[in-house]
Batch of 2 targets.
Target 1
Amino acid sequence: MAVQLPTWTALAPAYAFAATALLLFIIDSIDPGSENRPLIAGTATLGSLAAAGVSAWYLLAGTGTEPIRLYANSVVVDSMSLFFAFVFASVTVLVCAASYDYMRDHSYQAEYYALVMLAATGMTMMATANSLAVVFISLELSSLPSFALVAILKKNRGSVEAGLKYFLVGALSSSILAYGISLVYAVTGSLLLPEVANAVGETDLTGVLGIGILMILGGFSYKVSAVPFHFWAPEAYEGAPAPISAFLSSASKAAGFAVAFRVFIVAFPVDQLVTSATAGVDWVLAAQILAVVTMTLGNFAAATQDTVKRMLAYSSIGHAGYVLIALAALSGGSDQFVLAGGMAHLLVYGFMNTGAFLFIALTEYWSIGRKFEDFNGLAARAPFACVAMTVFLFSLAGLPPFGGFMSKYFLFAGAVRAGFWWLAAVGAINSALSLYYYSRVVKAMWIEDPVGEFDIESKPVGLYAALSAAAVVTVLLLPGFGSVWQYATDAAAALVA
Amino acid sequence: MWIEALIAVTLASAFAVFLAPNKVASKLAFALSLLPLAGSLWMYSTYEASGNALLAGSELAFETNFEWVTAGPYTLNWHVGLDGISMPLVALTTVLTSLALLASWTPIDERQSQFYGLMLFLEASLLGVFSALDFFQWFVFWEMVLVPMYVLIGVWGGPRRKYAAIKMFVYTNIASLVMFIGFIALVFGLGDSVTSLDMPAIAQALRAGELGGLGPLTAGTLKVAAFVAMFVGFAVKVPIVPFHTWLPDAHVEAPTPVSIMLAGVLLKMGTYALLRFNFTMLPDVAQNNAPIIALFAVISVIYGAMLALAQTDLKRIVAYSSVSSMGYVILGLVAYTLYGMGGATFQMVAHGLISGLMFMSVGVIYNTTHTRMVSDMSGLASKMPFTVAVFVAGAFGYMGLPLMAGFAAELFIFLGSFGAFAGSVWFTAAAMFGIVVVAGYLLFAMQRTLFGTFETETDYEVGPAAFHDVAPLVVLILLVILLGVDPNIFYTMIQDAVNPLVPAAGGGV
C-alpha cells in the first residue's frame, strides 16, 4: 500500500484550477497587461492538464469508490464527481490551447485565462456539491466568470449584447434557484442533500416542497440551457468568442447536469416523491416534458438557422434534451443504466461539441464568414481541419463510426430498458432530423464549389493541436467505449446504488 | 490478430495518404494498398477453417473474440473471423482496391491526396464488414462505408454528382435503419436466450427456434416482419428491383475508380448480408416464401437487362447490367441448395471481377474519347485495339462464356435453383432467358461503338491508353479466366462454408 494521501487532496482537481487562477493573477500583477502569450496560455493549459491528470489518476486508482466527505459533509468526492471533473478539465485543456491563437490580438490575456480557470473551479465544485449552499455558491462561481468571458470582446457589439443577455437571464435564474432552495429549506430544515432526502418523505407541505423543487429544476434548466430557460444560449454562444462558446456549451452544460443529477437523485428520491403511494411531487414528469420540448425545439430551431455557429448553439440545446432523458427515465427501475448513458453522452459530447466550436474558432481566426455558404469548398484548402469537423458533426448526429453513436445508442437503449420507449423514440427521430443540418455543413465543406477565395495565410498551432486532439479522442471513444461505459456506470452507481 | 492488422494497416495508410502532398498521393496510395493486398493473399494461402462462421461446430480462420462493452444484459464483443464465404470477399476487396487505385491515376486530377485517402478508408471499412461477426461492430463498419462513398461521388463525380451522392446516401442510410430495427426486434424477441449481439450466438438461437413473441407480435409474425425489414434493408444495397433507382445515378456520376468499388464490392455487401442474416438466421421464412423472393430475383434479372438494352450511355449499360447480375445471386440464395448458395457466393466474386473490368474499360475509353454516348463513337477498335480487346473479353465474361468466371457462377446457380422448390423450374428458365438479353445488349453496344469505321464526335485525339490504365485490365481478365478454368480455387472453400446451411433433405442438387 502506497502512502495514504490526506482526505482533502480528494479535491485536488478543483484546487489545481483555483491555484492556476491565482498564479495567473500573480503573473498579471507582476507584469500588468502582459502580452507574453506562451507564458500565460501555457500556465492555463498546464494547470488544466494537471486537473485532468489528477482526476484521471483518481478514477484509475479508485479514489472515489468509497465516497470521501469533506467540510462537514457539504462536499463529497465520489466516482461521479471525479468523472465530471475529468470532463470539465479535458474541455478546459482544449479551450485553453485553442485560445492561444484565437485571443492573439487581445488585451486582457491573463484575465481571460484566469476567468476560465475560476469558472472551471466552480464547475468542478458543482459536481462535488452535497449541500444546497455549495450548489448555489459553486453555480455562481462558474456563472459569474462566464458572463465576463462572453462579453470579453469589448469592441464587438454582439459579444457585449450576448454578455448582457446572459447576465440578465443568469441573474433571474439564480434568484429563482435561491428562492427554490429557501423553500426546500423551509420544508426540510436542512441544506445537506441526504438530510433533505430524509425529511421530504415525512413532510406534509408537499405543495411548498413541489414549488421549491420546480424552482430548483428551473435554475438548473438555465445552466444546461434547457427550454424554457434556453433563450440566452443561442445569443451567448453566437456572440461569445468561439472557444468560450465551446467551453459554455460543453463543460458548463455538463456541470449543470452533474449538479442536477446529484441534487435530484440524492435529495429528492424518486421512490418517495414520485413512485410511492403517497407521492406528491412528480418531478420526473416535469423532466420528461422538459426533455421532449427541449430536444424538439432545439433541433427544429437548429434546422432553420443561416449561420453555422448559431446552428451549433441550437443543436447544443437539442443535446441538452437528450441528456435530460437520463433524469426523465429515472422512475423506470433501471436507473443506473440510463443515468450512465446520460453521463457517457456528456463525456463524448465534451469532446465532439468542443471540437465543433473550435473549428468555428478556426474559421473566425481566418475571417471566413459565418453562413453555411461561406464554408463552401473549404475542404480543398484546409482538408485536415475539415476532416476533424466532419468527424465532430457526424459524431454529434450519431452516425456509427464515431463516439457519439455509442453514447446516444446507450442513452436511448437505457430509456427503452426503463420502459420509456417513447422518450427514446422522440430522441431517435430528433437525432435523425439533426443529420439534416449537420450534413449541410459537411456538404458545404466537401462537395460545394468555393464561392470566393479563402485567405488562409497561416495554420495556427494551438487551434490545430486542440482540434486534432478532440478529433482523435472522438474517434477513439468508439473502440474505447468499454472503459468510458465502465466509469460512467461507476459514476451512476455513486448516486443510485 | 491478422484481420485487425489488415484493417489497421489500411486505415493508417489512408491517413498517411491523406496527409501526403497531392503530387505523390497516387503512387503512395497504390504502393500502400499493396500491403493489405499482400496480407490478404497471405491469409488466403494459409487459410485453414471449416464450416460456416455463424453455425456451431465450425472452425474459423484468424478468429479473435473478446469483450468490448458490457451494458446491462447485453455484451458487445470485438469478434472477427473468416470462413469460406468471407475469405474470397476479403481477397476480392483488396485486389479490386489496388486495381481501382491504379485506374485513378489518369481521371483524378484534383485533390488527389484526399481522393486516395478516402479510397483506402473505404477499403478498411469494407474489410471490416466482411470480417466482423458481432452485430454492433458489423453495423459500425457497414455505416462507415457510406461516409467516404458520399464524398467520393459528391466531390469527384460528374455534373449531377451532388444529386447522385445525396440520393445514394439517403436511400442506403434509410435502408440500414429499417434493417437495424428488424434485426434488433429479433434480438429483443429472443429475450434471455442471448446475452450478446454476437452474430453466431444469435443465428444459432434463432435456428434453434428460441424466438419468443414481442409485445403484441407472436413469434411467427415477428419472424416474418423482421425478415421483411432486413430483406428490404439489404435489397436496397444489392440492389433488387424496385429498390434499384439510386444505383444508375450513383454509377453514372461516380468517377471510374469509385464505380469499380461500387459495383465490384459495395453491392456484394448487400448479398453477403442477405446470406448471413436472412438466409442463415431465418432459413424457414426464406424457404416458405421462396417463390416470392425468386420472383423479385427474376424481375431484377429481366428488368435490369431490359433497362440496359434501352440505354445510350455506355456506363449506364454496364450499371444496369449489375442489377441483372445481382438478381442471379438472389436466385441462387433462395434455391437453398449446395450449388445454388455456393454459386451465388461464387457469382459475388465473379461479378466483382467482371463488373470491375467492364467499368474500368469504359473508363479507359472515356479517358481517351471524353464521351460515353454510344451514338458518338464508332470503330474504336482501329485506334485502341488493346483496350477494345479487353473490353470484348470482359463482355464475353459477362455473357457467361465458358471457361470464364461468369459461366461457372451462373451454371452453379442454375443447377442449384432448377427444381429446388415448387415452381423453381419456371423461375430458373425465365432467369436463363436473361442471359440472352445480356448477350443482346452487350453485342449491340459493341457493334456500334467498337467496330465499323472509325468516327468519333469529339475533338480529342484517340489513341492507345497508357500502360497503367490497361495493366489492371489485364490482371482482371487473367483472374476472370483463372476462376473460369479452375473454379475450385474458391469453390471448395465456399462449398465448405455453405454446406452446413443447406438442409439435409432439400430439393435440387
Target 2
Amino acid sequence: MLQKVGKRFWLFALLSLVLLVFVACESADTNTQEEPSNDTEQQTGEQSTDSSDEVKELTIFVDHSFWPLTEWSGEVPEAITEKTGIKLNVQVASDAQQLPLMISSGDLPDLVFTQGNFQQMSNADISYTWDELIEKYNIQDFEIDPMARVLNQASDGKLYSIRNGFTTPGVFQSTPAALGNIPALSLRTDILEELGNPKIETLDDLVNVLKEVKSKYPEMKPLVLNPAVLGHYFKVNFGASYLQNFRIVDGEVKYYIAQPEQYDYYMFMNKLYREGLISAENFTWKDTNQAKAMIINGEAFAIANLTDMYTINSEIKASGKDFEISQLTKLIGENPVMSADSAGWSGTFITKKAKNPEAAIKFLQFMQSDEGQMLGLWGVEEQHWTMDKPIEEGGYPTFKYDSQSAAEHKKIGSVWWGLLADKGIYAQVQRYVPGSTITEALIDAKQYTKGNPLLGGIVLPVDSDEQVIKANLDNMIKNEEAKIYLAQSEAEAKQAYENMMKIAKDIGIDLTALF
Amino acid sequence: MKRTVEDKIVDFVVYSILAIVFIVTFYPFYYLIIISFNDGVDATLGGIYFWPREFTLVNYETLVVDPKWILAFFVSVARTVVGVILGVLCTSIVAYGLAKKDLMFKKFYFALFIIGMYVSGGIIPLYVVLRSLHLLNTFWVYVIPGMLNIFLLFIAISFFREIPKELEESAKIDGASDLRIFISVVLPISKPVLATMALFTGVGQWNAWLDSAYFVQNENLRTLTYKMMEVIQKANIPIDLQGPGAEYAAKVAQSTPYSLQITAMVISVVPIICVYPFLQKYFVKGATIGAVKG
C-alpha cells in the first residue's frame, strides 16, 4: 500500500514538474512569438514615419562563441537604445557550424556579426549592400572610409560590410593617443630585484637573465608562453610578422613564412628550448590559463602574453601572493617591427531577412559615427568618462571605472557593442592610460609600427586553388614548426627549418606571389 | 568444494583485471569531482590526483545560483521525461506492429527503416524539415524528432517476436482489440525491453546539446548540456582569431577558470549517473534480447 502511495506521489510530482516547465516554456514562446507581430506593426508604421518613439527590436547573431554579452542590458545598451530607438535581441553562436547552417537554410536574423563567414555573407542573395540601403532610405552623412571600402569589397565589387578594428596608418600615426595592441613579455619584479635589477635591453640580456633564474631557482620555469600568442613577442622583436598573412619579400607578395626574419625567430626559440628556458610541454598547452596559472602560483618567472599584466597582478593579489609582474616597456630586438597589416577582423551584415532594413542601416550609421563609437566602446560621457580635447589634438578619455577590466565592460556593456562597427581609432585611444606600464610599452611599440593594410586585405576566394594552398601551408606549418622549436641541436633546427621551407615550396608557396 | 591453487590464481587474475577496469572507468569521474571542488587557478597547474589541493565551493556557487542554469536543469528534466515517455511509447507501438508475421508490406517498411538507420540527410535538411513543421524554437523540437528510434525499434521487434502467440490469441478470444492486447498483455510482460529503451532514450535526451544549439534561440529553452558546452566554448580562444579579435577573446576567455568548466560537466553528468543504477538490471536483460535464438 505504502509502495503504491509512494509511486503515485512520485508520478504526480514528476508530471507536475513537467507541466510547470511546459507552462514556463509556453509563456516564453508566447513572448518570442509576439515579437515579430510588434515588428510587423513597426514596419507598417515606419512606411509612413520612421520617427516613431516606439523601440524597434532587431535580432543579431554574433558568430563568436567567446562573446560575453548574451543580453542587451546595461547602461551602454540602454543609452544606445535611447539614441537610436533600437534594441537588440542577441543570439551568440554556440559553435562555428551554426552560422553556416543558418546560411544554408536561409534562416537568418536581421543582423549578423562575423569574422569566419565574412565572405559567405558577402553575397547579394544573403545580405543587403550598405550602399543600396543608404540610397534607398536616403541616408545622409554615412561616411565610409575609401580605403575601408576597397579592403572590404566583395568579389562582385559591392560592399556588404566593413571589418571592424581597421584604421588607416595615417590616422593611427596622426592621433597621438592611439595605441595598437602588442604581444607582451612580463617578468616578476621581486626576482629581478633579487638579481640586482639587471638591464634587459637586448634579447641576449633577456636570455642571460632567464639563465640566471634557471640556475638560482631550479624549481621555477624561467619562461612560459601563452599558447594563443606563443612566440609573437619574439617575432615582433625580430621584425617577423606574427600575423598569418601576406608580406612583401624581395619585392613580391609572399606568404609570411617566406620572410627571412622568420628564420632568426625560429632559431632563437630553439635556443630557448635547448637552454632549458622554455619547456616542450608548453607547446602542448591549449588552455590560455595554463601559462597564467604558473605565474600566479609562483611557478614561473616570465610570461609571453597579451598586454594584460594588470589583470594577472590582480589575480596574484587575490590569491594571497605578495609579488607582481611587470611588462617590458621597450622592444629589445635589433630591428623590431610591429605589423600593422590588419584590415580588420569582424563585420556586421544586414541580411535579406531583416524585418526592418532601414532601422538596421540607421543603427549601423549611429554605431560607426564618432558619437556611437565613443558610447559603444567607452561608455556614457560624463557618467563613465570625460575628455578635455578631441582625440585628433591628443585627447583621450579619463575613465571613471577600471577601463582595463573585462568584468567592468561586461557589467556596463561597454567595449563589446562598440565593436559592431568599430573604426579602430576609438578602441586604440581607449588603451591610453597615462602613467601606466602598458601605455609606456605601447607608446614605444608605436614607433616600430609599420605595414600595409592592403596586404591584410588580401582575401582568397572560398574553395579556390589559392585558398587550398594557403590552408595546406597553415596545416603544414603547425606540424613542422614544432620540429624546429624542439630540435636537439642548432644544426637539427636548421635542417627542420629547411625541410619546412622545402615542403612549403612543394605545396606552392612560390605561387603565393602570383595571387 | 576445496579451491585449488589454479582456482585461486584465476580468481586473482580476474579480480586484478576487474580492479584495473574499475579504476580506469571510475577515476576520470572522480578526477572531475575533485577538480570541481578545487580553486580555479590552482587547478590549472595540474598535479591534483586524489583530493582537492585548495578546496572551494565557489565553482558550484557560481553555477547553482544562476537562474539560467536552474531553468536549464528543469528543461533537461522535462525533455528527458517527455522524450522517454513518448519515445518508448511510439517506438514500441511501431515495433509491435512490425513484429507481426502477417503484416502487409512488411519488407517495404523494413527497407524504409533500414535505409533511415544508415543514411542520414544531414543537418541542413533536418533543419529545413523542422522549420517546415514549425518546431524550431519550441520545446517539441527536443522530443518529436526522437520519438522513433530505429536502433531501439529493432531491439523491440526482436523482443516482441519472442512473446508466445498463444497469449495474444487467448486475449483475442476474450474479445480484446489489438490496442488492448498491446497495452494490457504485451506491455506488462515487456519491462526489460521497455527499461532498455527508456535508458537509451533517456541518456540520449539528457546528453543532447546540438539540438539546443542549432534549433533553439530562446534562452529559456536551453538545456543543461548546452549550458555546459557554452561554458567550455567561451573558455576557448579560436586559433584563427588574430590581432584585436584575439585580444578581446583572450580577455574574456581568461575569466573562465578550468575548474568552472569541469564543474559544469559534473553538474550535467551527475543526475543521469544517479538514475543509471536503478535501470541497470533491466539494461543487462534488455541488451541481450534477441541475442540467442531458441
